[in-house]
Amino acid sequence: MARHIYSCPLRWSDMDAFGHVNNVVFLRYLEEARIDFMFRLAPGDGSPSFSGGSVVARHEIDYVRPLVHRHAPVTIESWVTKITAASLTIAYEVKDPEQVYVRASTVVVPYNLAEERPRRITAEEKLFLQEYLDQEPAVV
């Protein structure tokens, strides 16, 4: 099983009054990593996959330890834990080599923007996602 690796820069504005990255900002980090992951298959190679849209149905986040601003980016590892006919679950770890700051998951539903309704995962998308599929739950 492969993991998608995303190097996420920290911004000074990500910090809150307590001097660490605000909990809401982690959702933006996960979004950046998820978009980078899902669009690895899409238009660059001429594939229409995932370019039609998707919506987030659910987020779960476990905050393990505070992250403070620094110049070095944080690593976000992403992988797939579940694929159904019309949704997928992506798991994440926001981390440095020696520690994890956040463990999270997102349920994503492919969406047909033109028809304004959810759609099924295509065979091409499923094949791509299976490369990242790990059916063992992450240790929390």
UniProtKB/TrEMBL annotation:
- One matching Pfam family: 4HBT_2
Highest taxon of the lineage: Bacteria
> Which top EC class is named for this enzyme in its record?
hydrolase
Q: What is its EC number?
A: 3.1.2.-
Q: Which InterPro entries match?
A: 4-hydroxybenzoyl-CoA_TE, HotDog_dom_sf
Does the keyword section mention Hydrolase?
Answer: yes
Annotated GO MF terms:
hydrolase activity
Ranges annotated as spanning the membrane: none
Q: What is this protein called?
A: Thioesterase family protein
